[in-house]
Amino acid sequence: MTDPSFLDRVRQPAHTGRNRCVPCTVLNAAIALLASAVVALVSVPLAAVTLLASVLSISLRGYLVPGTPRLTERYLPECVLARFDTHPIEERRPDDRTAEGDGRRDREAVDPERFLLRAGAIEPDERGDDLRLTEGFSRLIERQRPDHGDPTDRDAIARLLDVDPGAVAVLDREYPAVETDRRVRKWPSEAALVADALADGALCDLTGRWERVPLDQRLGILRSLRSFHPTCPRCSGEIVLSEGTVESCCRTHEVLALGCEACGPLLEFSPEQATPVSGRGVRP
């Protein structure tokens, strides 16, 4: 029987599960089949072993051949990359659990805008055609800074993700990223992580209903709330909208970024996701 600890050492969550790059997996699978077919010309049993080992490698590590992203970008058609590639900005999709868990999340899910309005976190502006943070909620956010202002605080991240601090593994990346329960969660900048932690703590103080909202929906609501900050939640710098590019595993994407020059983006989103609103430019 395979040692679970050995599998944990071999497995690479950064390239598997929700973080798996489908185009790279397709290319690796094609290489595995081709290699097995060649080996079969010499020995069918050896070809079967080759195919099994290749499948295990792709399943556990996410790839068979090092440097796969470069090969994928070069040899796979653009239509295949566009069909299967995961956009490098933050995910906004529900978690996969049991049917029972899905039913509970459905019951606890909320209409985000209505929930925030009723809780007193946001309100219509003077013109009535846009939304803004209420003064009371803004004060609650400021009150969280001593406990949630450090983007490297493992305890604060654990509270945000509703897990034990020991279950949080901070990953060595250019942007904030952590692994919990074999899932990698990421933020476009430390300022974005700070914004989420501050707003999460403020919502916990504002309403007891917040903690019953399903985790993935909470994170989605926190992500949207970043666009409501009048200044950078980390350095109080000016928030501006800019254009740029980000790279996924094997593609380059045009994005819009909302943030400050010093601390980086609070939000990154594709132009087609943006909805024009008054005053703020876009609503992601």
TrEMBL record:
<protein>
    <submittedName>
        <fullName>Uncharacterized protein</fullName>
    </submittedName>
</protein>
<dbReference type="InterPro" id="IPR058675">
    <property type="entry name" value="DUF8054_C"/>
</dbReference>
<feature type="domain" description="DUF8054">
    <location>
        <begin position="111"/>
        <end position="227"/>
    </location>
</feature>
<dbReference type="Pfam" id="PF26236">
    <property type="entry name" value="DUF8054_N"/>
</dbReference>
<keyword id="KW-0812">Transmembrane</keyword>
<feature type="domain" description="DUF8054">
    <location>
        <begin position="231"/>
        <end position="264"/>
    </location>
</feature>
<dbReference type="InterPro" id="IPR058775">
    <property type="entry name" value="DUF8054_M"/>
</dbReference>
<dbReference type="Pfam" id="PF26238">
    <property type="entry name" value="DUF8054_M"/>
</dbReference>
<dbReference type="InterPro" id="IPR058674">
    <property type="entry name" value="DUF8054_N"/>
</dbReference>
<feature type="domain" description="DUF8054">
    <location>
        <begin position="7"/>
        <end position="86"/>
    </location>
</feature>
<keyword id="KW-0472">Membrane</keyword>
<keyword id="KW-1133">Transmembrane helix</keyword>
<dbReference type="Pfam" id="PF26237">
    <property type="entry name" value="DUF8054_C"/>
</dbReference>
<feature type="transmembrane region" description="Helical">
    <location>
        <begin position="21"/>
        <end position="40"/>
    </location>
</feature>
